Amino acid sequence: MNANKGFSLIETAIALVVLGLLLGGLMTPIATKIDRQNEKYTDQQLEIIREALLGYAVINQRLPCPAVDANGVALTPGDPDCIKEGFLPWADLGVGKQDAWDRPFRYRAEDEYVDTMTQFDYVSGLAINAKFKIDHNLTVTTGGDSKVIAVIFSYGKDGNGELENSNGTKTFTYDSIDSSVNFDDRLIWISKHTLSQRLVTANIWF
Fold first, then answer.
1. Engineered SS bond to 131: which of 25, 80, 118, 176, CB 3.0-4.6 Å?
2. CA 34, 40, 42 angle in degrees (round to 5)?
3. Is residue 1 part of a domain?
């Protein structure tokens, strides 16, 4: 009798199932690695943007207004939308306009800092909230001066602002371990002391 050379349907089905499980197990780590790379790239862009904003403030002695749309052209001081959250004025700053997911960065500056600054003693109502991560000690209440004068952020992979990052208020969430929230926003900020130090170093203030 001749030996049966080929695979039966059952054997083929089993082989396909095993192959599918192996591929599925490989795809999850790859997808996770891509997510981490995108987050790292976005964080690097946020650092670049922060430096550009500080440089802009040294040259112009004020922070730029946000842009009204993704064209990245900053509004002029005095415009009603200048003191609201908007798009990053990337065209005025000379930086990239999008995060790793090809979505425009968002930007908010405290009201007094988008006008001509003097030796300021302004109180800022912007607040950074590390929600549910008490050990990080990043929670800043809105009652009083938070020392945060500008916030730049990305809506992350899902394209949606989580928690306070989507409600247009002056409070922003840095991170969260709330299991009910798929938090993937990326955020960075500038303190008024960082800006003051840059202005002093540049001999703008003494």
1. 176
2. 105
3. no
Query: Cβ of 201: how many Cβ atoms within 10 Å?
Result: 10
206: in domain: no
Q: Are 93 and 104 in contact (CB under 8 A)?
A: no
Task: Note down pLDDT in tens along the chain; length 206 residues.
Answer: 455 555 677 777 777 777 776 666 656 677 778 888 999 999 999 999 999 999 999 999 899 999 999 999 999 988 999 989 999 999 999 999 999 999 999 999 998 888 876 666 677 888 888 765 445 555 554 445 678 899 999 999 988 888 888 888 888 888 766 656 678 899 999 988 888 888 888 877 65
The answer to pTM > 0.85 is no
Task: Work out the end-to-end distance of the chain between its first and last CA atoms, rounded to an integer number of angstroms.
Answer: 100
Residue 27 counted as domain residue: yes
Question: At what angle are helices 192-201 and 9-60 packed, to 10 degrees?
Answer: 50
Q: What is the dihedral of CA 15, 20, 25, 31, to 10 degrees?
A: 150
- Read off the amino acid at residue 40: K
Within a domain: residue 3?
A: no
Structural domain span for residue 102? 9-201
Contact assessment for residue 104 and residue 98, using Cβ atoms and an 8 Å cutoff: yes
Q: Is 25 helix (H, G, I), strand (E, B) or coil?
A: helix
For residue 130, the surrounding DSSP H or E stretch is strand 127-131
Number of domains into which the chain is organized? 1
